[in-house]
Amino acid sequence: MLKKFIFTLIFVCICSVGHAKVIDRVVAVVNEDLITLSELNEEGEHFFKKIRAEAPADQLEDALHHARKQVLNSIIDRKLLLQRAEKRGITLSPEEIDMQYYGIMEKNNLTPDQFSAELAKIGSSPETYKQSLKAQIIRQRLISYEIRSKVVITNEDIEKYYREEYGLENKEDGLHIKQIGVLWGAKGRAKDKQDARLKAEQLRGMIMAGENFADIATEYSDLPSARDGGDIGVFAEDELSAPMRQGLAGLRPGEVSLVLETPSGFQFFKLLSARQGNVISQAPLELVREEIRATLHDRQMKEKFDKWVVKLREHSYVEEQL
Q1: What percent of the chain has pLDDT above 90?
Q2: Residue 169 and residue 141 share a domain
Q3: Which residues of 152-183 are buried (b: 16+ CB within 10 A; e: fewer)?
Q4: pLDDT tops 80 at residue 92
Q5: Residue 52 forms part of a structural domain
Q6: 20 with 107, same domain?
Q7: What's the pLDDT at 13?
Q8: Rounded-to-integer distance, Cα 205 and Cα 95, Å
Q9: Is 214 left (phi over 0), alpha (psi -120 to 50) or beta?
Q10: Chain segment 118-170, per-residue pLDDT in tens
Q11: Do residue 121 and residue 8 come from a single domain?
Q12: DSSP helix/strand/coil, 221
């Protein structure tokens, strides 16, 4: 109880002319670690700024409070993971972090100054980004240690997914499509049209080299469908936009289109299946087996990870003071 009381009272102050001005306070205790208000504000700065600019005045305070809770929970989970990793002896040297950092910079064809400028646009900095990168890598290693061995994907799982997602059990006529888009301007991450085209070609190249379409879409696509791994469902041909019709023309199920220009960016598509009445065309199972395995593996990993984090919280001391 004494430790909890001391943690609750901790604050940072500046003393001037005999007065103390509180400039920081603890917003959460996670076992032996503290999370301060300044840490929370720094982490959520870009998110909070967006809410202040877009939320109606009468909803602003509620929206900010909800956002702060979201960001705080994210920080708490990260602290728990890092604490667990430390207990497991999972570490990352500064040299390893630098190697990853400069690797990402080179992959995006940016100089150090350009990369710093891009980070500044999203309210970050090289040091903050490196800390985030460190947490991500340690998280991945911890997940591999704690969870990966418990994930099992059977042939029956793959065949069931194939039947459901590649057309055999799809009762709608039309084309089942996935997409990835790279946008420039306010809605995208590319700095200009040329950069957007280059990024789109790079992403398509990764997929043609064997990367999982859904994983690439989730991580890199600027379109709303990214949250669904690029899956936009089934469309009749007369429902397709001109770029989509152009991209899908002559494409066989399982194939990926060329990169096409749109008014605000560049897109490419993957055709999963096509159905017209009783005539069904679909990618052969063997052509998509490993992609399906990867998709199911990622889904099961996320489910097990979410449950594992809940258990980790249950066996830890966490007190929110927001």
Answers
A1: 37
A2: no
A3: ebeeebbeebbeebbbeebeeebbbbbbbbbb
A4: yes
A5: yes
A6: no
A7: 45
A8: 29
A9: alpha
A10: 888 777 789 888 988 888 888 888 888 888 888 999 999 999 988 877 755 55
A11: no
A12: coil
Beta carbons within 8 Å of 298's beta carbon, 6+ residues apart: 212, 214, 215
Q: Are residues 71 and 94 in the same domain?
A: no
Nearest CA to 31 among 71, 78, 69, 67? 78
Whether residue 176 lies inside any domain: the answer is: yes
Same domain flag for 79 and 111? no
Nearest to 122 by CA among 200, 182, 50: 50
Shared-domain flag, residues 100 and 44: no
Run of H or E residues at 28 = strand 19-30
139 domain residue, yes or no? yes
Domain presence at residue 306:
no
pTM of the prediction? Answer: 0.61
**Residues 183-202: pLDDT tens digits?**
987 778 888 888 899 999 99
Chain centre to alpha carbon of residue 137: 14
pLDDT tens, position by position, 209-219:
888 888 899 98
DSSP secondary structure, 35-65, as one string:
EEHHHHHHHHHHHHHHHHHHS-GGGHHHHHH
* Averaged pLDDT for residues 238-266: 88
**Which pLDDT tens digit goes with each residue over 2-12?**
344 344 444 44
Residue numbers of the domain that contains 63: 1-87
Tokens of 34: 């503290």
Same structural domain, 193 and 274: yes
pLDDT at residue 23, as a whole number: 65
For residue 132, which of 44, 51, 199, 195 has the smallest C-alpha distance? 44
Domain endpoint, select from 87, 103, 137:
87
Indicate if 142 and 179 belong to the same structural domain.
no
For residue 178, is pLDDT > 70?
A: yes
